[in-house]
Amino acid sequence: QHRKNITDADELSALFCHMRDNPGHSYDWEGSKMVFKSFNESKRKVVESALIATIPNCNLKPGDYPMCKLTARVILDSLNIDASSTIFNRSSIVPNALPSTARPSTTPSSPPIVLPTPANITEPIAPAVSASDIEAFIHQMRPSTSDQLLVPSRDPPATSN
Fold first, then answer.
1. Could you tell me the superkingdom of the organism this chain comes from (predicted)?
2. 104 CB-near residues (< 8 Å, 6+ apart)
3. Which terminus of the chain has fewer Cβ atoms in its 10 Å neighbourhood, N or C?
4. pTM value?
5. 52-74: buried (b, 16+ CB within 10 Å) or exposed (e) per residue?
């Protein structure tokens, strides 16, 4: 997904925008690692939002579940995810990895950056999350006994005579 966003020059992709705005920066795709595995998309997105809130990144938005650093830390700690091990390594940057056809042309001037103010915010602000909401979420994230994989015994079943 992320490689395709860069190849397609997707302006909504933080990865593409970072590479466009920082010529010479690239990503070490082969060095990527799984941080959290779940078949539940909501759980994955909560963990992604927690990581965005916790570590330095180039994301354009706070994720699908915006949260403060304190909430993010509680979620990551409850799942035994060490956010410090997910920080990218500057030595993994590959110079000039952005294809020359995708490099932006230089322009004499850029439009000014408009910071959001209460008058020009167009997206709704996420509701506050209570401590009980966090506790309920953490309880949901932990594997239950029904989620455990049962492995059959190697011993053959006993036969009755």
1. Eukaryota
2. 20
3. C
4. 0.51
5. bbbbeeeeeeebebbbeeebbeb
